[in-house]
Structure formats: structure tokens, C-alpha cells
């Protein structure tokens, strides 16, 4: 993937662990992917195949649902949000590009 092809998708603050996630969307040329040192395995999933009950980070459930909804519509925003101590997703803003 090329950095020039990346589009900012979301900035999310995870208050429980004092981290901020900056997420980008990008197309890929292959279904192959490799796991980094913090991951045992990595792969791509179709929405119907996502193991929703066994996500490594359950806080990402809402984020993934939002992504798949936008993927179906073909319209993507830039999302600013936070996940609170209880794992609840709080959407702050949704920025869209001008038509």
C-alpha cells in the first residue's frame, strides 16, 4: 500500500488505556497480510464472517459496524470519537467531504 493512497478515517481516544487510535482507509492489491509483533495472526474478513463475539478489542465493535455501513453506501466520513471506561462508543463528530 502507498501512503499517498491512505485516507484519514477515524481518530478515537480510548480513555481506559490512555491511547489514541488514528485509523486510515486504503485499498490493497492482495488479500495477503502479515501480523506484526503484537499480533499472532491477521486476515481480512467479509462483514458476515467477522467473529463478532470474539474480537480482541470489543470496543471496536461499533467502529467496525460503522465502517461496513459506510462501505456499503460508498460514502465515508472522518470520525472523531472516544470510547469511555465502560467500553461505550461516543461519537463526537462526523466530517464529510464536500460534494
The total domain count is: 1
What ranges have pLDDT less than 50 throughout 5 or more consecutive residues? none
DSSP E strands, number: 4
Major beta-sheet overview: 4 strands, mixed
In terms of DSSP E residues, the strand content is: 25-35%
Fraction of residues in H or I helices: 10-25%
Figure out the total of helices.
1
Shape: globular
State the end-to-end distance.
26 Å
- The string of secondary-structure elements, in order, is EEHEE
Question: Based on helices, strands and strand pairing, what is the structural class?
Answer: alpha+beta
Mean pLDDT: 80
Radius of gyration: 14 Å
Strands across the major sheet, in which order?
2-1-3-4
Question: Can you tell me about this structure?
Answer:
With 99 residues, the protein is α+β, with helices and mostly antiparallel strands. The protein has one domain. Helices cover 13% and strands 28% of the residues. The protein has one helix spanning 61-73; strands at 7-14, 19-25, 78-83, 89-95. The radius of gyration is 14 Å and the shape is globular. The two termini are 26 Å apart. 4% of the residues are buried. The mean pLDDT is 80.
In a few lines, what is going on in this structure?
13% of the residues lie in helices and 28% in strands.
What distinguishing features does this structure have?
1 helix, single chain, 99 residues, globular, 28% strand, 4 strands, 4-stranded mixed beta sheet
Amino acid at each position: 500500500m502507498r501512503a499517498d493512497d491512505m485516507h484519514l478515517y477515524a481518530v478515537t481516544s480510548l480513555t481506559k488505556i490512555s491511547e489514541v487510535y488514528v485509523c486510515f482507509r486504503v485499498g490493497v492489491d492482495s488479500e495477503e497480510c502479515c501480523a506484526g509483533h503484537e499480533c499472532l495472526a491477521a486476515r481480512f474478513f467479509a462483514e458476515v464472517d467477522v467473529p463478532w463475539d470474539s474480537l480482541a478489542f470489543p470496543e471496536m465493535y461499533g467502529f467496525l459496524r460503522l465502517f461496513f455501513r459506510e462501505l456499503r453506501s460508498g460514502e465515508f466520513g472522518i470520525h472523531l470519537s472516544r470510547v469511555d471506561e465502560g467500553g461505550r462508543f461516543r461519537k463526537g463528530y462526523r466530517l464529510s467531504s464536500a460534494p
